[in-house]
Amino acid sequence: MSVQHERHCSSVRCHSSFYYLCWVHSPPVIIIPVDLRVGLAVESSGRFKKFSKVYGPVFTVYFGLKPIVVLHGYEAVKEALIDHGEEFSGRGSFPVAEKVNKGLGILFSNGKRWKEIRRFSLMTLRNFGMGKRSIEDRVQEEARCLVEELRKTNASPCDPTFILGCAPCNVICSIVFHKRFDYKDQRFLNLMEKFNENLRLLSSPWIQVCNNFPALIDYLPGSHNTVLKNFAYVKNYVLERIKEHQESLDVNNPQDFIDCFLIKMEQEKHNQQSEFTIENLIATVTDVFGAGTETTSTTLRFGLLLLLKYPEVTAKVQEEIERVAGRNRSPCMQDRSHMPYTDAVVHEIQRYIDLIPTNLPHAVTCDVKFRNYLIPKGTTIIASLTSVLHNDKEFPNPEMFDPSHFLDKSGNFKKSDYFMPFSTGKRMCVGEGLARMELFLFLTTILQNFNLKSQVDPKDIDITPTANAFGRVPPLYQLCFIPV
Q1: What is the pLDDT of residue 20?
Q2: What's the pLDDT at 30?
Q3: Binding region for heme
Q4: Which residue ranges run through the membrane (predicted)?
Q5: Closest CA to 22 of 47, 59, 74
């Protein structure tokens, strides 16, 4: 972004360093000293809130040498991502991820490629089953498998990280690969470990530095190399499954996402400009696989920690499950409309944990005049989801975990336009419907069958995230699943 610094720029002292504000034809500019760039990466949401109070809801921050426009608050985020959705639908720079997918797939692609792959993925996921089994059936079946696995802990203390990761991963596997794994399968556990480690590392200060100074990725050692190796492992696994599908493909009877993509490839084999290639299939499946596994499992893990912290909330959810579903059948999505408190708890878990605080980076697809600011084409945009999910007018005392944020005075479930954990607009999460279904069915099925017992007094449970940049990662903990 072209920004000329004027002599009369004002300065403001913040955290013992100077930030400079220049009023020009683009949003007010904050230049971050080198010593604070890592700190900003770690707690950017808090700093963005401070900046917005001084500079307003639209301002420019320099990360390294790169200008990034920050949108803070519901109105600015909605106006950009929804009202001007097409102009703000580009994917901003994320060098570590670009090193992996090279602009392919669905998460980090742009332009025609992104539109075609996203459209295909949405259609395939929505229509998945091809008349055979609904996605809800698959989630319910996996929820029952999860319960059986939790029974094997014999009410002993356990770290739920991998068990809770296996369930959503198996749902994605059934959709993408037409198979599920045993929870003790070592290849399966290896995949889970890669996803878990990558979310933690992508939320570390060093990865934020690499994203701001991409030249470091090729020349310095560090955890970014572990991220790249983990992604390479997953992509190799995906390629193996694709080769198996190519050998067994029945174009008249597609079994899963990969089959559907291979059929689309065959239909477009004479189109030299087709986006449906093996390379794009590998990248797309890796995106769907990763995004559909770790985000949901982390939310589940954080959710159970909150339910341990607030046993009175857990008790009310269990009372509602008992009244609506009883104990002799599995909870289903139709139950949700009759379980307003449980629905509110699931929403509040997502709102409170604020899993991806600054969203994935967007970019403007053309020169945009936004709130009287000129934002040049290609400029990276950060839409602060924290500023929406923790808005104190919509959600009084937003730093408190309180299901009443989604309940009216009569105890009925209350929707909120501010509920954006999956982002919003044209880049919102493709798997939102599946993720919301999994969270409701997995949590209700667990609480239908088990009481949760903490190893420490609930008031002493620490719910502070251990990582707090790209994603919020809950601390490790142990609990006992006591059969009801």
Answers
A1: 31
A2: 52
A3: 429
A4: none
A5: 59
What does the DSSP assignment read for 231-289? HHHHHHHHHHHHHHHHHH--TTS--SHHHHHHHHHHHTTT-TT-S--HHHHHHHHHHHH
Q: What is the pLDDT of residue 1?
A: 39
pTM of the model: 0.86
Q: What is the pLDDT of residue 26?
A: 53
* Rg from Cα positions in the chain: 23
Contact between residue 187 and residue 452 where contact means Cβ atoms under 8 Å apart:
no
Q: DSSP secondary-structure letter at 177?
A: T
Please tell me the predicted confidence (pLDDT) of residue 4: 31
Query: What token pair was written down for 118?
Result: 């996203």
The pLDDT assigned to 44 comes to: 60
User: Which residues define the annotated binding site?
Assistant: 429
Residue closest to 62 by CA, chosen among 382, 367, 377: 382
Residues 6+ apart with CB under 8 A from 335: 324, 325, 444
Give me the torsion for CA of 283, 184, 430, 464, rounded to 10°.
-110
The C-alpha torsion from 259 through 263 and 264 to 266, rounded to 10°, is 140
**What span, in angstroms and rounded, lies between the C-alpha atoms of 453 and 402?**
21
Burial class of residue 475, CB neighbours in 10 A (0-12, 13-18, 19+): middle
Give the residues of the chain that fall short of pLDDT 70. Answer: 1-45, 64, 128-133, 467-469
